[in-house]
Design goal:
It is built from 15 helices and 14 strands. Helix content is 35%, strand content 15%. It has a seven-stranded parallel β-sheet with strand order 3-4-2-5-6-1-7, sandwiched between helices. Strands 10-11-9-12-13-8-14 form a seven-stranded parallel β-sheet, sandwiched between helices. α3 packs across α4 and α13 packs across α14. It is α/β, with parallel strands linked by helices. The chain folds into two domains: 206 residues, Rossmann fold; 165 residues, P-loop containing nucleotide triphosphate hydrolases (Rossmann fold), CATH 3.40.50.300. The longest helix has 15 residues.
Length: 435
């Protein structure tokens, strides 16, 4: 295996990699970087967590560092198009880390926040533009962004793009790009529609495939627990309290269920935060930050978090509900076992989800160990009611003791001795009427 120092990067980039503790490339990096440094188009098939962000970011930074920035202000030289704001933020952070000291300007453009700051960044001049399709098209239509000088175009997570309905937006953006450019195309899967898109936008590409033999990473220990739907809450609490966990991501199918799981965990004195589409960008970034730094050990998320979020130290992924699409299972559990580290994925499966489980098993081509869990009668049925639940505030530890310090002890109920008449319980008490 070669080292980054043998791949032709500048001393500044190598120093930045060294400071981050990176010495040897991952499989996708080892295959992709030499191709991209030659300027060829690339078609890459790789799972999330394989290191593909660095696989295209490092050659881009090397390319820009070698060329002088002579373009006009507001005209970017590199466009990286991604499906979600979370992935855009992640890639921007990677570019800033790997490109420190190179004088290369990058910015992320996505919806959910005011565009004024983004417009100012464009006016100040940018080299690399990381964007989601919707916000990019908005800024293009307003005349803030021109793509005529793009030298490198990256389309990341192409399959996810098409799943989210971005095909028309992608075509509109590609039409505005110059013919002479390097195009980098990454996708975790290669169904017919994704293959067709790659054929349309790539020019004699080199293809690399870093997909493992099974559809899931071997470093992830997977198991399935069969249970009733009503028992899932108790089962989750049992795992979080009894297993040796670090950071845990719990996946649900809906935003409403994510909120219910959070309220149940808070009621059970387990700190947790949520991450889903009903939260605004600021709240989502705050939730993710609090999770990364360990303020909350549990993050409850919908599939919006299944890709594009790279959090170190996630020991467990728990599928509270199985995803409707088998491919989403692979992306969910890919949040653990990253960069070769071991991880644990646990999936809860009730009777209605058994057909989904069968599809997942066919996809990953593995036979997973199973067990069965039966809850106790206190199973919290109210958490399964339709609609939002009343917010639960856990009792404050020691609250009963605190109260005793300010009680009016003259009104405390005294002990009734044997044979003594029972005192009135309150001033309006009349007692039994005599017949």
């Amino acid at each position: 295996m070669i080292n980054f120092s043998e791949m032709g990067f500048s001393e500044t980039i190598l120093e930045n990699l060294k400071n981050e503790g990176y010495e040897t490339p991952t499989a996708i990096q080892e295959q992709a970087i030499p191709v991209l440094l030659t300027g060829s188009d690339l078609l890459g098939v790789a799972q999330t967590g394989s290191g593909k962000t660095a696989a295209f970011s490092l050659p881009i930074l090397q390319h820009l560092a070698k060329k002088s920035a002579t373009e006009a202000l507001g005209v970017p030289r590199v466009l990286i198009l991604v499906p979600t704001r979370e992935l855009a933020s992640q890639i921007l952070k990677s570019l800033e880390v790997y490109g420190k000291g190179l004088g290369i300007k990058s910015w992320a453009f996505f919806g959910g926040i005011k565009q004024a700051e983004q417009v100012r960044a464009l006016k100040n001049g940018l080299d690399i533009l990381v964007a989601t399709p919707g916000r990019l098209l908005d800024l293009m239509e307003q005349g803030h962004i021109r793509l005529g000088k793009i030298e490198i175009f990256v389309l990341d997570e192409a399959d996810r793009m098409l799943d989210m309905g971005f095909i028309d937006d992608i075509n509109l953006i590609v039409e505005k790009l110059p013919e002479q450019k390097q195009t980098i195309f990454f996708s975790a899967t290669m169904p017919d529609n994704v293959a067709g898109l790659s054929y349309d936008i790539l020019n004699n590409p080199k293809r690399i495939d870093a997909t493992p033999k099974s559809a899931t990473v071997e470093s992830i220990s997977q198991r399935v627990i069969f249970c009733r739907r009503v028992d899932k809450f108790q089962l989750l609490k049992k795992i979080l309290k009894e297993e040796d966990t670090e950071l845990v991501i719990v996946f649900t199918k809906t935003k409403n269920m994510a909120d219910k799981v959070r309220e149940y965990l808070i009621h059970s004195r387990i700190p947790a935060t949520v991450f889903h589409g009903d939260k605004d960008q600021q709240d989502r970034e705050k939730a993710l930050h609090n999770f990364k730094v360990g303020s909350f050990k549990v993050l409850i998320a919908t599939d919006i978090a299944a890709r594009g979020i790279d959090v170190q130290g996630v020991s467990h992924v728990i599928n509270f509900e199985l995803p409707l699409e088998a491919e989403s299972y692979v992306h969910r559990i890919g949040r653990t076992g990253r960069a070769g580290k071991e991880g644990i994925a646990i999936s809860f499966c009730d009777d209605s989800e058994k057909p989904i489980l069968e599809r997942i098993l066919r996809l990953i081509k593995l036979k997973l160990p199973t067990e069965t869990y039966t809850g106790t009668p206190e199973a919290p049925g109210k958490w399964l009611m339709d609609g939002p639940i009343r917010k639960v505030t856990p009792p404050t530890p020691g609250k009963s003791q605190e109260k005793s310090s300010y009680l009016d002890h003259s009104k405390r109920q005294r002990v009734v001795k044997e044979g003594e008449a029972k005192p009135k319980t309150h001033p309006g008490f009349k007692g039994k009427k005599k017949k």
